[in-house]
Amino acid sequence: MSSSHSLRALLLGLVLAGCSEPESVSFPDIAPADLGDWQPDFGEESDLGEPLEPVTPDTMLDYVDPFIGTGGLGFAYGGLTPAAQAPLGMVRVGPDTSEGSNYSTLIDRFSGYRAQDPNTRGFSHLHFVGTGVADYGNLRVLPTTREVSERPYRSWYATHQNQAAGPGWYRSELDEGEVGVELVAGIRSAIHHYTFGEAGEDNIVLIDPTSSLKDSGVEAATWSVDGTTFETELTYRGSYVGRTRPFTLWASIELSETPESVEIWDDEASQWSAVASGVDAPARLVFSGDEVVLKVGISFQSMEQARENRLEATSRDELLETTESAWKELLSRVLVEGGEELERTLFYTALYNCFRMPTRLDEAGRYRGLNGELHELTEGRYFTDLSLWDTYRTLHPLWTLIAPEAQRDALNSLIRMGEDGGFIPRWPAALSYTSGMEGEPAMVMFGESAAKGLDGVDYQRAWELFEPVADASAPEGGYDARRGVERYAELGWIPADEFSSAASNTLEWSVADYGLAQLTNHLGLTEESARFRERADSWKNIYREDEGFFWPRNADGSWAELRSKTAYNERSGIFVEGSAWHYRFYPLHDPEGLRDLMGAETMEAALDEFFEESRLFEITERTQLALPDPYYWHSNQPSIHSVSHYAALGRLDKLSEWTRAIQYSAYTPTPDGLPGNDDGGTMSAWFVWSAIGLYPVVGTNSYVPMPPLFPKITIRLEDSTLVIEAPGASRTVGKLVAADPFPETTAGQDINLVYTLEAFD
């Protein structure tokens, strides 16, 4: 068995272990190199002659590379897709790929795409972006000139070449240039432009309403063709997005010409049969012209609304202009001066990825809620696909600063979900409560936004929805909210002998309680705020001083067994998606409290060891990131904030060195250029924060200074401007000597922060 196959087998074992009662994954005892005098190697800065011109709204899209993070192996798979989309759009139309007939989504292809794949199965319209779970892939279209009746239709694929993509568009060639593909997306629409090698009867477009990434979950699908109109209705219960409720998708497609023939695949006869409509099978449309254009409108409400949404797709050029204008407006809120092509590409691609999820679900002033019903929406947008356990750490604080209207809409969407479904969720997808991951990140988001003064949110209503599950488990049903919170409130920790995920959830709920303290303080509920503020210190109850780690604790107060501090997902997920090391610096909201508990010297030595022994800074090939790192692991969320904790120790020099090392080790301008799943923009938002020179203290209105990557960054806020100046900033000049503090409020006042940097030794 080759080494690559061995690695894939090991990864498969890890994935399967995570789906049941997992055995721990321990790491071999390999003596680390002596890194006491380690200094990060940031490489050589190129001699480009004249500095690059400052970035402008007209040039910034040139620095966006949607192929970054579309590849990677194992845990280092970025999960991104080059699919065309508008900012936070409903439609993400792009390729679903395979390696021959292998399109397994077990350890990758979660977005439908994997950069290493040579084949395209077709272009579907719904996708996750960067998540660690595979779903959607609905309504797939494949143009071809080949006969496709020789094998089951779900194994159809074409080779692809010459792929290119940018904000709002995707291009490729199929089958060695036999078919040219251009895709453009609007918010709820898409245009497919197919160019065949020549006119003739072999120019085929396959449209599959039964498709999904896993080829399962479509409960019913019908379609019909009338002249130049193809329409379909499908009901889908995906393994993730359909956990509590399926959704129905309607699509109306205008064809540029009437098909010469329309056929349906007959499984029993293994052949195509001429029809005008079909059920639970794909359609085969044959065209005589050498160019075929499909204008697609989709809807979660009705066929009538899908037809209205299709009208967005006026023409390829006009739709692209509209979508690109939306991207320019959004990304131009942060303009940088200085930097090289590398830094600009990494930065603007990361900023782009911060606005690809969640998914906009409102149409014509209405939305379909978590109860499956249509509801009126009088203002704002309605989002779903909110991967909150990931995004509450970096993405949503970034939105609060640079895109408050998006944060406002996200919070109001969560309130509506609570009203429609009964509880504010932590990972809503499509029309479902997924109960994915752990903690109660929405509590943190509301508390932090209130503390930062974000207006336009009904914080009182949010508290009314949170209050029933603040101290009591949610009733059995679709949402697994704070299961065991009664014992947590009684003991001060979640007992490991009664509940899984005990240690990590104790840490998560402490942060959530701090969010509730901030929320109730904003509402003037003094007693409630004090109670939650006290309970937000529950993380201290599982700190084991003799070990220097957070530790699972039993109901009687005794310490539970922890077989390894470096084991990933040990024993029923005591530390979910991490180890004791990964969670060692976890109180996201209280780094000073952690310093006081551990002791400054102990905490500094622990942080030093955490980073010095990480494999991230020793890799020579990206494949070395495929497995969890037993120490600092930038491929997942629990430890990504840790470098900012050096600020609580007054060690801006170490904060600077390790931040630069992470920037240039974890991120590269390549398909495997992310260290792990982007998780709805979480890891990209980390890069944006570090590059502009700030990092949010979760749940608070405070920021930690980071070493900017650029000499000057201008950020357009909602009603003012923030300018961060760091003269000389570059990959080798980034040791923070001093930084102006971020003000407590940004309302209506321009802000200028000046950082003093030195070259690294």
TrEMBL record:
Q: Some GO term, biological process aspect, for this entry: which one?
A: carbohydrate metabolic process
Q: Which residues form the Glycosyl hydrolase family 92 N-terminal domain?
A: 63-299
Domain of life of the organism in this record?
Bacteria
Q: Name one Pfam family in it.
A: Glyco_hydro_92N
Any keyword Hydrolase? yes
* Gene Ontology CC entries for this record: cytosol
GO molecular function per UniProt:
carbohydrate binding; peptide-N4-(N-acetyl-beta-glucosaminyl)asparagine amidase activity
Asked whether the keyword Hydrolase is assigned, the reply is yes
Instruction: Specify the Glycosyl hydrolase family domain's residue ranges.
Output: 308-730
Checking SUPFAM superfamilies in the record gives: Six-hairpin glycosidases
User: What UniProt keywords apply to this chain's record, in alphabetical order?
Assistant: Hydrolase
Protein name from the UniProt record: Glycoside hydrolase family 92 protein
Q: Which organism is it from?
A: Microvenator marinus
